[in-house]
Amino acid sequence: MKFGYGIPSVLVGAATVIVVQSQAVLALSASQVASIAEQISVKIDGQAPGSGVMIAKRDKTYFVLTAAHVVETDDEYEVITPDNQRHSLSYAQVKKLPGVDLAVVQFNSNKPYQIANLGDSSQSQRGMTTYVAGWPLTGTAITQPTLLFQQGIISANSQVQQDDGYGLIYTNNTLPGMSGGPVLSEEGTLVGIHGRGETDRQASTRNPDVVVKVGYNLGIPISTFLSLAPQSGLNLDLQIATSQATAPSTEAKPSKVDDLIAQSGNQLYQGNNEAALGALNQAIETDPRAADAYRLRADARMASIGWSFMEGRSRKNRDLVLAAQQDINEAIRLNPNLSDAYTIRAYLKFVLQDGAGATADINQALRLDPQNAMPYILRANLLADQRQWQMAIADANQALKLDANSPYAAFAYSARGLARASIRDISGGLQDLTKAINLSPGNALFYMSRGTVLALSGKRNEGRVDLEKSASLAQQKGRTEVYKEVTKRLNLLKRLP
């Protein structure tokens, strides 16, 4: 029995548990991998909808690997297969793996569905292309369940156990609802399970002021599942592919740097910014050419002030913003082709009131990735800051065509709402600001903006309620500059005749 390079040797002794079918694979095009993702991915409907991937079949029973938090509580769950058929699953048969955020669920069907080929996740090295698929939650833009397939780059692949097993970090843009979906290699093999996204961190209100995506998402390597399956009593016929593809010599091998970057990603997700900063400092000391470490260190620095542009513009935080900008400059020098890095630098220039520099970086981000909503969101806010209302509305409209669901879309609604109110479309402006609040209810600035518009349009009592809510949120989150500004507006409101 032949195992691919890097498959844990412990599995050899578990041959009665895992049956391996060796299949040689080569790199595929993105469209070919997308076709595989469409056939192996499922949606899991329940209290907190998520995604999964079919990994095995026995008789009429299919086995789906997903993130354990997708099926965290006893509930009535359904698996929706690629043919849009619904299959009930018994919660009593849900198998959660110990110490990691993984679970296996099962459903019965007479229909033939494609099973994933499991790859060698140890070969997923920094700089390699990767793909993530899943079913985002429905909302304003995505009104029907739709499989989202996203391309990105591996940032780190830790060889040591991370929190809940999350050792893979990648730049693919993901949305809430994609947890449990497959992380696929260039060969179309399953190398991980997606479970934590940067958008999830923002949506959870840990950091509702973040206006830009830094570009990190977290997954659990498939090797973790393979090592735990035998001891978890899972008797599955798995298809494990051996790869003929070899990694380019320029790719970074898994190392201590990967461990540190993965550790920092988990810390950032949990809001432990100082711990993340410490891990990233170590990573950069170990490998000064690790571009992703510089990019994430900029996030750790700015996260300490909530990525708030008002906090960033205060004199006491200027050095912090400049340090973050220096990190991003180095990240871009080392890897000039990552769109998110230019968007981050554009935001930092926006904070530093370098409008021309911010615009140049936004344009470069769009040249690299014209389907990314983030540069449009940022430019809409920049234009609103410059009182170029119609142009701000146009960019916000474009951003919302690309992404009207994620918490980041709140900043597009906010910019458009302020712009519409400023050209005397008060009703439209208030509608947009309300949408921003609904998407990100922990953001003090959104309440301050809506409260100001309400007060100036004659609805002073409603405006005061929003301003007081803004002050409360700003105080809770330590947003000193926001609190000062909203307090000033409340005092002005009191003095109005």
Automatic annotation (TrEMBL):
The cellular component terms of Gene Ontology attached to this UniProt record, alphabetical and capped at eight, are:
cell outer membrane
Give the PANTHER family listed for this entry.
Answer: TETRATRICOPEPTIDE REPEAT PROTEIN 6, UDP-N-ACETYLGLUCOSAMINE--PEPTIDE N-ACETYLGLUCOSAMINYLTRANSFERASE SPINDLY-RELATED
| SUPFAM superfamilies given in the database record | Protein prenylyltransferase, Trypsin-like serine proteases
The entry's protein name is: Uncharacterized protein
Q: Does the keyword Repeat apply?
A: yes
Name the Gene Ontology biological process terms.
receptor-mediated virion attachment to host cell
Q: Which UniProt keywords are listed? A: Repeat, TPR repeat
UniProt KW Lipoprotein keyword: no
Gene3D superfamilies per UniProt: Tetratricopeptide repeat domain, Trypsin-like serine proteases
